[in-house]
Amino acid sequence: MRPEDVVSFVVARPLIVERPRVVVPLLPGDRVATAVGAIVAPGDLLAERVRDPHLVDAVSDERGVPPRPGAWVPATPRRRRTSPAGELLFEHEGRRRIVAGPHPDLVAAPAAGAVVEIHPGVEIVLQLEGIGIPGSALLGDPGHGRLALLPGDADGRTLLDVAHAGNVVVFPGRVDAEALTRARAMGIAGAIVPAFSDRDRRDVVASDARQRAGLHRLAPFPVLVLDGYLRRALAGPVHDLFAALAGVDVGLVGGSSPMCVAGVSADVVPSPQPDRVRVRGGREAGHEGRFVGLAGPRRVAGGIAIETVRLVLDDGRTVVLPLGDLERFA
């Protein structure tokens, strides 16, 4: 079997998604500020997010028709105080349980597109123009900015600069929570990282909660994680794609399909080499190379026979790896 035929058996990972359909998650108490069919641009208001939500009992208005769960209940005067406005969770025996809170934050559209579905308290579904680069998780609320691919020094460390304020920056190598804290302090609008450990994720989420504990409203600082938890550098095809998109306005969105979205045509995307693969597991995880040929079946622990292939890695080494430990971009 030819090497190019073996590549077809490697797990294919999509490099881009054209005209992505994305989800903006909503929390109980969030007030939707758009409508189905609305055309949105980057930064347009989608919803107001309650920063410190809490449950409140509100007296039902007998003169009106009881709203459905998810409806917005306006503030109503009571004997001693005014019942605050909030989202209705449920109504029982003439009393409404609503979610209310002060100091709303703003949830904005990450890119240009249209609102196709709204589920109060659950999600807003957008149909966006252009392309999307899939990731594995988004930390924080959606955001947008101009894309900037950060350089590195001779030791492999990523260089941050205040000139990147307002941009969405891409870290090509390893990154920790401390680097993202510095990036946010510089006014950077968001970050894209190859991978992120579980401890660093908790630190970033806790830092975001501390930042939002004040009364002043803060801009979102989303962090898109591309690969998962294992520390590794940015994949070669993904690095080339971000290099081609440098200077383009992009958005970061989470939900069920976390991704970086850009309003450009798929024609600007550089095509990956057909025989180029990446190691996704084992000792060589994160390395890239090209096929040389088949290495035949090998028997491993438990008496299981697996198919192996011979690769030439970018560092010049020739290795034999299981076919199931590889992935390719397509």
Structure, explained:
The protein has 330 residues and is mostly beta strands. It is 11% helix and 40% strand. The protein contains four helices and 28 strands. The protein has helices spanning 3-7, 177-185, 198-211, 236-244, and strands at residues 11-13, 17-18, 21-25, 31-32, 39-40, 45-50, 54-59, 72-73, 76-77, 82-83, 86-92, 95-100, 104-108, 113-119, 123-128, 131-134, 137-139, 143-149, 167-170, 190-193, 223-225, 249-253, 259-262, 276-279, 288-300, 304-313, 318-322, 326-329. The protein has a nine-stranded mixed beta sheet with strand order 2-16-23-22-18-19-20-21-17, covered by helices on one side. Strands 1-28-24-25-26-27 form a six-stranded mixed beta sheet. A four-stranded antiparallel beta sheet has the order 3-15-14-5, with no helix packed on it. A hairpin with an 8-residue loop joins strand 24 and strand 25. The longest helix is centred in the middle third of the chain and has 14 residues, at 198-211. The protein is elongated, with a radius of gyration of 24 Å. The mean pLDDT is 85.
